[in-house]
Amino acid sequence: MARTAFTPNDTAREGRRALEVEASGLTLLARSLDSAFTEAVETILRVRGHLIVTGMGKSGHIAHKIAATMASTGTPAFFVHPGEASHGDLGMVTRENAVLALSNSGETNELSDIVAYTRRHSVPLIAITASHDSSLPSMPTLR
Hints:
Layout: H1 8-32, H2 35-46, E1 51-55, H3 58-72, E2 77-79, H4 82-85, E3 98-103, H5 112-120, E4 125-129, E5 141-142
Parallel strand pairs: 1-2, 1-3, 3-4, 4-5
């Protein structure tokens, strides 16, 4: 597959366009923050144990990064793979923790065991999804 040759002006123009699109997206995101965001932050601040971050696929890669960033900035956190959680790692999840679950669709089957566990053991759950109508149950849900 041949790549399209860009002139230096094309490259700079495309770079500016990409940054403008990202800036616009961040502006929209900033405007959308509401009480669910406040509740999620307050939930994380109340955690006495760890913030457990989980997600599958691309969301899992992002969850890894969030867990690492939180840990390096002073919030004890670690990543739990949802598939591994279903096969023994749920024991790491306690009432002292909170779970942050990432799912683009909010329909990720692999998250069902960890979500059910949070409900059964009264572990705070925060979900971040792109879908307003997802079945990923939680309060608060950030979109």
